[in-house]
Amino acid sequence: MSALGFQGRPLVWIDCEMTGLNPETDRIIEIAVLITNGNLDLVDKAGCQYVVKTDKHVLDK
């Protein structure tokens, strides 16, 4: 078993694209998710990706 106890267990990887890093003023505009097994091999090569509907004025900032 690894030091963190992840060996052999699936992992979910989440990537968020944001307009900035301030949670008060910035927004998430895209989210992608991948799942790997304990050996870090992709379980589903397609994964999933979502674009969050965002007003143009937010993107223009």
UniProtKB/TrEMBL annotation:
Ranges of residues in domain Exonuclease: 12-56
Membrane-crossing residue ranges in chain numbering: none
GO molecular function: exonuclease activity; nucleic acid binding
Matches recorded under Pfam families: RNase_T
Xref: Gene3D superfamilies: Ribonuclease H-like superfamily/Ribonuclease H
Keyword Hydrolase assigned: yes
InterPro entries for this protein: Ribonucl_H, RNaseH-like_sf, RNaseH_sf
UniProt keyword annotations, A-Z: Exonuclease, Hydrolase, Nuclease
Residue ranges the record marks as coiled coil: none
Name by which UniProt lists this protein: Exonuclease domain-containing protein
Upper classification of the organism: Eukaryota, Fungi, Dikarya, Basidiomycota, Agaricomycotina
